[in-house]
Each structure stands twice: as C-alpha cells, then as structure tokens.
Description:
The protein is mainly α. Helices cover 28% and strands 1% of the residues. Among the domains are: 129-170 and 296-305, no CATH class; 172-228, no CATH class; 241-294, no CATH class. Residues 49-131 are annotated as: Disordered. The chain crosses the membrane at residues 20-37.
Amino acid sequence: MTPSPDPGSDRKRLGADELIAVFVALTSIGGIFFWSISQKDGGMNVPFFQEPTASSPPVATPSAPATTDATPPINGSVDQPVTVAPSLIDPSASRTTPAPQSTPFVAVVPQAPATPSPAPSAAPTTPVAQPKQFTDVPANFWAGAPIAALSAKGILDGFPDGTFRPNKPITRAEFAEIVRRAFNKSASREALKFNDLKPDYWAVPAINQATQTQFMSGFPNGSFQPNRQIPRLQVLLALATGLNLQPKQPAAQVLNQYQDAAEIPAYAADKTAAAIEAGLVLDEDNTKRLSPDKLATRAEVATLVHKALGQ
C-alpha cells in the first residue's frame, strides 16, 4: 500500500526575509505600546487621535483664508509669534511660527441673486396744463390766445362765475400780482416802504417783489395806491424797466410814427421807445395811436405780458 501524502507537506515554509519582517513589525508594535504606557497620563492614548490640551501646544496649521465680510472681527488684536514644542510628526524639528489668529464666526447670509435693472425708459413728460375756458372770451376774440396761454400757466385767473372780464380795467395791485407770477427775477434793490399799505394787505408780497425787481415804483408822496387803475403807459414803462430794455434808435424816431407821440412825457420817451422796438404794442385796432393815458384792460395786459415773456 502506497502511503498517503502528508497534508502539512504542501505548506510553504516561511523564508528568512519574511521572518525578519515579522520580527520588525512585532518590535515596532511593542515599541509603540511601551511608549504609550510610559506617558504621564498613561493608558493607550494614541497621538493621532489625541485632542490638544493646555499642556501640549497645538501644531500650527494654516489659518482660514481671510473673508471679505464687512463685519469687523470680534478680536482685533494680532497675536505675537510663539515658540512651538517639537512636533509629534517631526520630533527633531523645533521652530518658531506665528500662532494661529482667532477667526471670529461670521454668519454668512446668502444674498439674493441680483436682478438686472430694467432698461431706462423715456423720461415721463410733464402734462401740459390746459387753458381755462371762459364764458366771455369767444374763440375768435382778439386776445384769446394770450389769455389762454397765461391762464394755462396760472398767471391769470378768471372769476368765480366762469368769466374773465377782458374789458375790465386792472388795478396796480392786480398788475403787481401778475408780474410776480409771470417773471422770475432776482431782487435788485430793497423793498420800498409805502405809507398806504397795511402789513396784512393781500398784495403786499406781490408789491414788494414788483418793487424789488424794479417793475414798479411808488408815487412821490410815498404811496403806492394799490387800488388805482393803471394806464397803458405805466404798463409799458413797468415792463421795459423790469426787463431792462434799451432803445436801439433815437426815441423820437421810434415815437414819431404814432399820431399821439406828443402825449408821451419826456421822462418816459426812452423806455416807451424800447418797449415798442421789443414788440410790446397793442395793434388790435390797427391804428397808429399809443393811447398812453387809456386805462389798461385785463385783455390788454394779458397781451403785453405774453409778448414780454418772449423777451
């Protein structure tokens, strides 16, 4: 009978190199075990999982990148460099490295995605004021256009009954109010004091502005006479003086084309001629007369002021 093969004979015997490797591994494990139990706290405190304590300084690690958050840091001081004990990873090295700075916790609030701004649209146009409709100013009235233009700008108003009363003479106080609304000029002299105006009179602000801008003046006796009706000549002088109009030709040459030029006082010749050259004339009756002493009506003042606004 043939003897059966020994089962253990197929096993591969360990060579000398393998035996040495096993010996080195066991020696390393024993060394680690011996080192761990020899520590102060004792026990199996493996250094790779040990949290830093007060007695063992932490290994310097790079600080987190600086954020651009606007919140100021809680601790604003900068720590000085400290000497770190030999590293557990490289026991032979002892180096000086900056201590990690305290990084404050900042709650980052996610920003909503920026929405694109809508394309700018055309600037809104200011609605044009509509002229008022007056029951006594027909469509074909000779001063209809100036009245409509000034009423749309709020320079002239009508009466509560819906009329304009274009043929009604205008007073000096009313004319001062029209000047205040129509012309935006800076004061060129102090306000004049008049002995016939009470401080609470309704037209005092308008009269003060009209006199400060030299559109109007008072009388030699120190009065203003606000309820006095104003003649055509005074309207021409007021507009020419307030707008600082000057004649380009000799006054006599300009005035002589009118049949009543002799009625113009000498003191008013230059300003009247300047007003005529600027187109401040009333030609509704197609005559060659200035009628300087005729009381100016609301329609006539509307026409002259409308023309003066073009200067």
